[in-house]
Amino acid sequence: GSYIVDKAFMTNAPPKMIVLHPLPRVDEISTDFDSDPRAAYFRQMENGMFVRMALLALVCGKT
Q1: Domain count along the chain
Q2: Would you say residue 1 lies in a domain?
Q3: 45 in a structural domain
């Protein structure tokens, strides 16, 4: 089954529920949902970048 997360899909979701996604997205998350505070995938993407930078520094001995 396919689904699309958009504002209409999230109307019945709990207010504290967040949506994560590894990105890049294709059609599974509508861009109209990007401004919703529960859309946490951009924060996830940014935090993932810093984690990868730290791991790379650790592996390369640059701690």
Answers
A1: 1
A2: no
A3: yes
Tens of pLDDT, residue by residue over 15-55, are 999 999 989 999 999 999 999 999 999 999 999 999 999 99
CA–CA separation, 58 vs 63, rounded Å? Answer: 6
pTM for this predicted structure: 0.76
Torsion of CA 44, 37, 3, 52, to 10 degrees: 0
- Asked if the structure places residue 3 within a domain, the reply is no
Do residues 40 and 63 lie in contact, with contact meaning Cβ atoms separated by under 8 Å?
no
**pLDDT greater than 90 at residue 1:** no
Confidence check: pLDDT of 12 > 90: yes
* DSSP conformation class of 11: G
Count of all residues that appear for the chain in the document: 63
Domain that holds residue 30: 9-59
